[in-house]
Amino acid sequence: MEEKMSSKELEDLYFMKAFGRDLKIVKGSGSYVWDENGKKYLDCVAGIAVCVTGHCNPEVVDAICNQAKELIHISNLYYVPNQGELAKKVVEMTGIKGARAFFSNSGAEANDGAIKLARIRTGRKNFVAFVDGFHGRTLGSLAVTHKPAIREPFDPLEPKCTFVRYGDLNALEKAVDENTAGVFVEGIQGEAGIVPAPEGFYEGVRKICDEKGALMICDEVQSGMGRTGKWFYYQHTGITPDIVSIAKGIASGLPMGAIVARDGLTFNPGEHGSTFAGGPILCAAALTTIKIIEENLPLISEKGKMFMDGLSAYSPRGMGLMIGIPAGDEERSHKIAEICRKNGVLVNCASHATIRIVPPLTISKEEIKEAVSVIDGAFKETA
Fold first, then answer.
1. Do 111 and 140 form a contact (C-beta atoms < 8 A)?
2. Which has the closest alpha carbon to 43: 376, 380, 367, 298?
3. I want to staple 323 with a disulfide (CB 3.0 to 4.6 A). Which of 143, 195, 318, 375 is the partner?
4. HSE-up (13 A, CA, CB side) for residue 227
5. Whole-angstrom Cα distance, residue 98 to residue 264?
């Protein structure tokens, strides 16, 4: 009888080598996951800020299963169950009056949609984004993503994009001109190592965009859906963006994204589309996800403070449950993550030797204490 091959053996033979990994997760419940050997981990990665309602949240599972029994897929040639209800809810969450939503299958695809919308409605072709910013890996979203290691091998890219130092309003003002369709900006640079915007930065970006006729495009893919203690980071600042891109936590792990654009910015028939985007099951999961986030939203800042206070010796930065802790160098950051994993807590190494903590928004205070204890121990062990 032929011996069954392991996941590693199968992937070595048949899967493109795009990822580096050595752990197989087979089960999840709440804030915890289990590997193939039965070991339990407190998950402070949460699918990289995706599993906001915890793993296999029963309400989300019920919403998915109930909808699957009625209709799994129907083309956007027809009205899609749950799609209009979700669009209304997401627009209301953004607080942008007269706005409209369009759904996608990922954050990168949402940012691609934002690029298309900005170009066609302004008549301009170029963009400005920021050093260390990350907006996706599709060709369009990669063009406005700074990281040279992942962008430059695919040059030349469109649209043309100028990168300026994050937080530098003088450089931004010089970079934005009559050919700039939009400025892509993250309120907290997630992939860069949880780097919050300097005070007054968002207000300055808004002012420059208004003066130059460019659109302010807020990438809330990682910082949105309640992660910072409000629905979206920009709501901490008082500004209103022209376009918001959303994904990650919107459907509790199902592949979904969205853009919301202000009044006057909309796709006309034939200008954009998607076969799978905004399908019945995805929208059902998203509506239930939003309900659960609403119940947890008032507690997120307090939970984040527990992490911050418990790990204050290591200069954590961030907001809500989007936290980064500088480890000093790459070797130490990977060692800290390895020790945490050995002791039953999953954390993630982001850029610039940062330990990233983005747990489910439903994580309990007791679970936070457990995570803090293990992470603190790892930092002490590697000091």
1. yes
2. 367
3. 318
4. 33
5. 8
Q: Residues 256, 50: contact at Cβ < 8 Å?
A: no
Q: Which two tokens stand for residue 343?
A: 């002791």
Amino acid (1-letter code) at residue 24: K
CB distance 99 to 92 below 8 Å: no
Average pLDDT over residues 147-164: 96
Joined tokens for residue 113: 């949609």
Report percent pLDDT > 90 for the chain. 97
pTM above 0.90, yes or no: yes
User: What is the model's pLDDT at position 2?
Assistant: 59
Place of tokens 């208004």: 210
pLDDT band, very low/low/confident/very high, at 4 (cuts 50, 70, 90): confident
DSSP designation for 79: P
Contacts with 189 (C-beta within 8 Å, 6 or more apart), sequence order: 130, 132, 133, 134, 166, 195
Would you say residue 1 has pLDDT above 70? no
Crossing angle of helices 83-94 and 280-296, in 10° steps, is 40
Alpha-carbon 333 to chain mean position = 21
| Residue ranges of domains in the chain, CATH in brackets | 60-295 (3.40.640.10)
CA 59 vs. chain centroid, Å, equals: 22
Q: Do residues 112 and 141 make contact, with C-beta atoms less than 8 angstroms apart?
A: yes
